[in-house]
Amino acid sequence: QVTSFQAVAVRSLSTSSPHDHPEHGRLVYKGNLAKTVLGVKFFSYSTSIFNLFMMPYIMLKSGIGVESLLVQAAFYGLIGIFTFVTPITLHILTKGYVIRLYYKDEADTYTAITYNAILAEKATVFHQKDVKIPDITKMFTTFYAKTKSMLVNPTLFPNPQDYNHLMGYDKSSFFKFEDLEEVKEADKR
């Protein structure tokens, strides 16, 4: 318990922000549905495991083994859908949900933390130049980091400039003030 107190004391004396991560950089985004996604996936996995363990007991007590082959196939298919398809579908839909997003200024890299299939946190490191915005708005994709789809909520960025830099909006091809001045000088000549 003394070591825990020492760690808290050292952390409180540190000059870095509590949102900084030594390996990933500065925290620029935190998803508000992280606990919900984790809870839903955990519930789905636990009910699937429960189904797998209860199937032999249900089959033994219900006498399904004596029925026709068609009834057996329908029963196993229905149980299979709820046991395997639901967790797989949930994982496919939520695998790109960004729990936390860190940014390293010196390297211009982002680290997106997501959940993998076994509910562990997975870090994906990418550069801002690897970010691609889909041409057509997709339901569970805000941007692509290399080839991986990522989902963030733009309103949850505490600093809007961080979102603009992530999406590349700060490097847009629209007129900048300097470009406007150059056009005015060219018109005068």
TrEMBL record:
GO cellular component term of the entry, any: mitochondrial membrane
Transmembrane regions: 42-60, 72-94
Any GO BP: mitochondrial proton-transporting ATP synthase complex assembly
Keyword field contains RNA-binding: no
Keywords tagged on the record: Membrane, Transmembrane, Transmembrane helix
Similarity section: Belongs to the TMEM70 family.
Designated name of the protein: TMM70 protein
